[in-house]
Design brief:
With 244 residues, the protein is mainly beta. The chain has 2 helices and 20 strands. Strands 1, 2, 3, 4 and 5 form a 5-stranded antiparallel beta sheet that branches. A hairpin with a 5-residue loop joins strand 10 and strand 11. It is globular, with a radius of gyration of 20 Å.
Length: 244
């Protein structure tokens, strides 16, 4: 109770612009979990766009409803689809940090038939609503395999695009803010290695290695225009340097 007295239980989180919407979360006093919402943005370029004050809030996902009747509930990776008409989230009801990915139809609020079991946290959308990517764990709970799932197909038909065989490395997924490239990052405590997948390349599923792993070499990848921007400690850059 003393801890709660120092918290503002009913609160709105910061809104972030994504396409024609502002997405945000809010909390309500007496409820344990977040509520995920969005409101329409005003017309115009992103730099000048503001939240439409007359826009009606749309509740996309109420984690309190997901957790109803469960002794344990962790929701991660709440992400709208590129078309903004579907929502993905991953949920763990057991506490073992292995998740099930669930997909919602935002026009109805109902769950879609596709469910992905044994997922390592958040999924990443492809270039359209038709495809998602996710990782799975090995016996030591190390994320090591990258999979592609096509909506409408059974999970047993999913294609493995990459396997990280080195037990010192963990595989994680990200997506560039441009939305064009999927990033598959193999990382250890000292070293990183990134592969990219061009989501605008149609049916091609070829991962491109940007820089082969070298012990002690770390780098992060962003995309802008026709170039990759690389933040790295290459050439003993203690405070890192930016390359393209």
């Amino acid at each position: 109770a003393e801890h709660l007295s120092h918290l503002q239980e009913t609160d709105d989180g910061p809104a972030h612009r994504h396409g024609p919407w502002f997405y945000y979360t809010r909390t309500v006093e007496g409820l344990s979990y977040k509520i995920h919402c969005r409101k329409a943005a005003t017309d115009g370029p992103i730099q000048a766009c503001r939240l439409d004050p007359d826009s009606v809030e749309q509740v996309l996902l109420d984690e309190n409803q997901v957790a109803e009747g469960k002794s344990q509930c962790v929701v991660v990776g709440v992400k709208p689809s590129p078309g903004h008409d579907m929502l993905a989230y991953s949920v763990d009801f057991t506490g073992n940090e292995t998740y099930t990915a669930v997909f919602l139809d935002l026009s109805t609020g109902g769950q879609l038939p596709d469910r992905l079991e044994g997922v390592c946290g958040a999924i990443q959308w492809g270039g359209s609503n038709a495809v998602v990517f996710y990782t799975t764990e090995d016996a030591a709970k190390r994320p090591w395999k990258l999979w592609k799932h096509v909506f409408g197909e059974p999970q047993s038909s999913d294609v493995c695009l990459y396997t990280e065989e080195d037990e010192l490395f963990y595989l994680s997924l990200d997506k560039t803010t441009s939305g064009r490239f999927l990033l598959a990052d193999s990382g250890s405590t000292e070293t990183s290695e990134v592969r990219v997948l061009d989501l605008e390349a149609g049916e091609a599923d070829k991962l491109q290695l940007l820089q082969k792993r070298e012990f002690g070499l770390r780098y992060e990848v962003a995309h802008s225009g026709n170039s990759f921007l690389i933040l790295t400690n290459k050439d003993e850059a203690i405070n890192n340097k930016l390359m393209s």
